[in-house]
Amino acid sequence: MRISSADVIVTAPGRNYVTLKITTEDGVTGLGDATLNGREMAVVSYLRDHVCPLLIGRDAGRINDIWQYLYRGAYWRRGPVTMTAIAAVDCALWDILGKETGKPVYQLLGGAARDGVMIYGHASGGNIDELLEDVQRYRDAGYRAIRVQAAVPGLDSTYGLHHPGSGRTYEPADAAMPTDNVWDTPAYLDFAPTMMAAVRERFGYDFHLLHDVHHRLSPLEAAQLGKSLEPYRMFWIEDPTPAEDQTAFRTIRQHTTTPIAVGEVFNTIWDCQHLITERLIDYIRTSVSHTGGITHLRKVFDLASLYGVRSGSHGAGDLSPVSFASALHLDMTVPNFGIQEYMGHLDPASEVFRTNYEFRDGYMHPGDAPGLGIEIDEEAAAKYPYSPKYLPVNRLRDGAMHDW
Ligand code: CS2
Ligand code: MG
């Protein structure tokens, strides 16, 4: 099982994706997602120039050793670029091991701890009526958990909504230069409880309700938000404050019982350590493709399990179907699984990535094909060339840059 080649495939079926394909001397291939939204080519270079040449000739079955070799051996550790590159290698090696042994990866990880993976879908609207219509759509489709976002009245644009005229896509990274959005915290804090009240009033309480704050509040504002949402029994509020300021979460915790989810921008167990061990959060949102792959994310979830923190991995559309398949295999096996985000992918993505996962009754299953159960059609991939695309940036009314 020696590695004979490692190739990076860059394609844009609906949005930009970077995929690592590792091939063994026996011709077995494995895939890993290496997409870092808005900074894609940094990971491409890291892989092509510094990682792929180091893999040739190595035993593909020594997944732990290769992980340590890339992490410790680089001297420069952590960070999104490094950890996304390592993740892609790690997932591709698990994929190869599955294909070699004829087993789906979740079996290699110790087997299923559940029958399926609860996912949450994303309802949104330009106003509350549109949002309620969208929630209805997810209810009809059988979702047991729904994230809700709506345009904040008085603001020209609100991040995280379906893009008008774009069908089901949203958070589209569709601009050659980042556009400026304008943000107003008091307007948002006034609006958020009315949005949740409308959703609960119409649909009741027999499904999980989630909301993403996109790192925009101060600790006290986040505490106020959490308190104002308590009557609506949120499953979580996500990223209430910028995640790198970790003691902020102590303040939020002291004031509200609304559960908190954090971690989509974290890359290692070290980033999560204090939030978990000090029980400052309820869900850890690190993803398989930005946190060192299955091998490392498993350690994060194991640490979290000691402290009653559950998993809730990031699964936005800028993580490719390869990432989503990898996440599902791990989600099947962790005892402290909480929920998995599923934003879905645009239609051209299914031309390029052949998937095996299946949605049934609110749950996803990764399927039983050997490995990750995902293939890439490189001819189709070549039809969708890369060009740089950016999400918007966020400014306050006075023009100052703000978090998003
Ligand atoms: C969002 C992300 O899904 C989420 O929770 O916060 O979509 C995030 O905006 C993007 O992944 C950024 O690349
Ligand atoms: Mg988020």
UniProtKB/TrEMBL annotation:
One Pfam family here: MR_MLE_C
InterPro entries: D-mannonate_dehydratase-like, DgoD-like, Enolase-like_C_sf, Enolase-like_N, Enolase_C-like, Mandel_Rmase/mucon_lact_enz_CS, Mandelate_racemase_C, Mandelate_racemase_N_dom
Example of a GO biological process term: carbohydrate catabolic process
Mandelate racemase/muconate lactonizing enzyme C-terminal domain ranges (all copies): 128-259
UniProt GO MF annotations: magnesium ion binding; mannonate dehydratase activity
Matches recorded under PROSITE patterns: MR_MLE_1, MR_MLE_2
Domain of life, per lineage: Bacteria
Coiled-coil boundaries: none
The protein's name: D-galactonate dehydratase family protein
Organism in which the protein naturally occurs: Allosaccharopolyspora coralli
Lineage start: Bacteria, Bacillati, Actinomycetota, Actinomycetes, Pseudonocardiales
